[in-house]
């Protein structure tokens, strides 16, 4: 893979991975009623930052810096996801009581609180092959973040 191909791949990953993971999170939330808990939100914030860094890499030099920052933000989300997955699997306790009331449509606030489902951080609302959404975020984000860093480092070794 040439240097320009490595940079293209790094750009694609820096934009594509957070966009797809955030898209999946919002589809699961609004399409399937899997409301996020507090730690789920924590995982989203670094992906928003990664999207910003990835977009900056398209327009503002130095490109490598923005892509490296995007990779680090993606890795941060993966680390939070790994911690959250451990809480869900009962490997350790969370650092908060970590339960959010889902919903909040702007109507009667008290009614919304009493009628909304409680979203707990220590219970995975969904899994695939025994891996929760937080676990999948850990796996995908960690792999993608490391791959972006590898692609950026590749130029210096060639």
Write the layout of secondary structure elements.
Layout (H helix, E strand, L loop, with lengths): L2 H30 L5 H22 L3 H26 L10 E3 L7 H7 L2 E3 L6 E2 L2 E2 H25 L1
Antiparallel strand pairs: 1-2, 3-4
Tell me what you see in this structure.
The structure is a single chain. The protein is mainly alpha-helical and 158 residues long. The protein has one domain: Bromodomain-like (Up-down Bundle). The protein is built from 5 helices and 4 strands. A two-stranded antiparallel sheet has the order 1-2. A two-stranded antiparallel sheet has the order 3-4. A hairpin with a 2-residue loop joins strand 3 and strand 4. 31% of the residues are buried. It holds the Pfam family DsbB. It is found in: Membrane.
Q: What's the end-to-end separation, in Å? A: 10 Å
Summarize the main sheet: 2 strands, antiparallel
Multimeric organization: single chain
Based on secondary structure, the structural category is mainly alpha
Shape field? elongated
Kindly provide the radius of gyration, computed on alpha-carbon positions and rounded to a whole number of angstroms. Answer: 18 Å
What are the key terms here?
Disulfide bond formation protein B, elongated, 158 residues, 4 strands, two-stranded antiparallel ribbon, single chain, Bromodomain-like, membrane, DiS_bond_form_DsbB/BdbC
């Amino acid at each position: 893979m040439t240097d320009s191909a490595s940079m293209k791949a790094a750009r694609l990953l820096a934009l594509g991975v957070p966009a797809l993971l955030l898209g999946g999170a919002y589809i699961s939330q609004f399409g399937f009623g899997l409301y996020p808990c507090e730690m789920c939100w924590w995982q989203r914030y670094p992906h928003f930052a990664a999207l910003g860094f990835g977009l900056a890499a398209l327009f503002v030099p130095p490109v490598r810096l923005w892509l490296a920052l995007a990779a680090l933000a993606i890795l941060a989300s993966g680390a939070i996801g790994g911690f959250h997955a451990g809480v869900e699997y009962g490997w350790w306790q969370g650092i908060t009581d970590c339960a959010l009331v889902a919903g909040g449509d702007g109507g009667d606030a008290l009614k919304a609180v009493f009628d909304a489902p409680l979203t707990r951080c220590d219970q995975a609302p969904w899994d695939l092959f025994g891996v929760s959404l937080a676990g999948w975020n850990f796996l995908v984000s960690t792999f993608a973040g490391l791959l972006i860093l590898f692609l950026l480092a590749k130029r210096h070794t060639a």
